[in-house]
Amino acid sequence: MDQKILFSTFFIYIICYNTHLINAHPSFGYSDKPDGPLSYNFYDKSCPNVGMIVRWGVWAAFINDTRIAASLLRLHFHDCFVDGCEGSILLDDTKDFNGEKSARPNRNSARGFDVIDNIKAEVEKSCPSVVSCVDILTLAAREAVVLSGGPFWPVALGRLDGLTASEKSANEQLPSPFEPLENITAKFVAKGLDVKDVVVLSGAHTIGFAQCFTFKGRLFNFKGSGKPDPSLEPSFLSNLQSTCPNIDNSNTILAPLDFQTITKFDNIYYKNILNNTALLQSDQALIQDPKTAQMVKDYSVDPFLFAKDFAVSMVKLGRVGVITGQGGQIRKKCNVVN
């Protein structure tokens, strides 16, 4: 894209973005007060442009690949859910540990590492050894949601990067689409979250894609029955069977998690659940449990309620297991410890 057009488009985006923030702050309870060990103005003096640098980096990636929004959001979730928000998912394997990139939930599916690395390089030019990779990832997830039409939320900063990563921890701690809702909820509770956060953060599946192997069992051999999941809407089932035929080499084919508004962050995901057109069994299960069904119905009819609650849950997620003070570092490069 021509450089002048690129900067002009970004300028227009920033104007719209700032308007979005003005409207968002009253609803989502923005405050400059400290958030525990974190602070909303942590880098105001040491790296005042970090927010703009992250915003630019995510936007530049997004205009070339709208799918990157869901990828960055997922990267943040998978980071925080494994031993806390400490940037461990960004680390390459070393002779001392097998990292999270090669864990089953991330292998050949986690993406966006290059975007974070590029943003980190730009931040280092502006303020060397000041901003952690995990703070960059946390900001990038928020920018990705806003770019997709979703809510803004304030991000408290001051996290330190962790010193190690664990493939084993990622395999054990990350929720799986093959697990029953009870198990998924237990994993959320173990992180200080609750069943409401399960329903709300599952709404991130309003954007992004899933590989066929994550739901193919529903199409052809549901729970070993030799038949499709009877809850799937017939025409939706037929379309999915065409997209993901019952052969091994279809396993990595991608299908949208929300087939109606693929790149737009909205509440259609919950309408899909009610219409029996949720892609993953773990998503469809939300309407089958009385503890979660009413929330699905509420969010399906009130997009503003979903946006508000999603912002609140993302703030909670960003606090999980953070490192401040001792025990962490500011990595110079996100894929290796210093």
From TrEMBL:
Keywords: Calcium, Disulfide bond, Glycoprotein, Heme, Hydrogen peroxide, Iron, Metal-binding, Oxidoreductase, Peroxidase, Secreted. GO terms for biological process: hydrogen peroxide catabolic process; response to oxidative stress. Heme b binds at residue 205. Substrate binds at residue 175. PROSITE patterns: PEROXIDASE_1 (PS00435), PEROXIDASE_2 (PS00436), PEROXIDASE_4 (PS50873). It is found in: Secreted. It comes from the Eukaryota. One of its GO terms (cellular component) is extracellular region. Binds 2 calcium ions per subunit. Binds 1 heme b (iron(II)-protoporphyrin IX) group per subunit. It holds the Pfam family peroxidase. Its EC number is 1.11.1.7. It is an enzyme of class 1 (oxidoreductase). Belongs to the peroxidase family. Classical plant (class III) peroxidase subfamily. Belongs to the peroxidase family. Ascorbate peroxidase subfamily. Removal of H(2)O(2), oxidation of toxic reductants, biosynthesis and degradation of lignin, suberization, auxin catabolism, response to environmental stresses such as wounding, pathogen attack and oxidative stress. This is Peroxidase. It comes from Handroanthus impetiginosus. The lineage of its organism: Eukaryota, Viridiplantae, Streptophyta, Embryophyta, Tracheophyta.
